[in-house]
């Protein structure tokens, strides 16, 4: 039993589509949370005093910080994926 035994095929399709849309929105929210996190971290690390324009040092620092954050996140995600796959076997 999948909990959908008493509903029509179109209702099942609608429920499936709704679940897909919810998953997409959750992914968007996770992405936005990541952007917010690395914005906070990198801003605090790289920006001494905000001005009307970023100087070269600040721009380079922000770029490097974001790249490191993304690389680290990908490395951790890949490692967890490997661990889960090994555990599933």
From TrEMBL:
InterPro entries given in the database record: Tim10-like, Tim10-like_dom_sf
Localization in the cell: Mitochondrion inner membrane
Domain of life: Eukaryota
Keywords assigned: Chaperone, Disulfide bond, Membrane, Mitochondrion, Mitochondrion inner membrane, Protein transport, Translocation, Transport
GO biological processes: protein transport
SUPFAM superfamilies xrefs: Tim10-like
Membrane topology value: Peripheral membrane protein
Pfam families assigned: zf-Tim10_DDP
GO cellular component: mitochondrial inner membrane
Ranges for domain Tim10-like: 21-82
Principal cellular location given in the protein's record: mitochondrion
Role: Mitochondrial intermembrane chaperone that participates in the import and insertion of some multi-pass transmembrane proteins into the mitochondrial inner membrane. Also required for the transfer of beta-barrel precursors from the TOM complex to the sorting and assembly machinery (SAM complex) of the outer membrane. Acts as a chaperone-like protein that protects the hydrophobic precursors from aggregation and guide them through the mitochondrial intermembrane space.
Entry text on domains: The twin CX3C motif contains 4 conserved Cys residues that form 2 disulfide bonds in the mitochondrial intermembrane space.
Family to which this protein belongs: Belongs to the small Tim family.
Oligomer and partners: Heterohexamer.
Protein name: Mitochondrial import inner membrane translocase subunit
Gene: timm8b
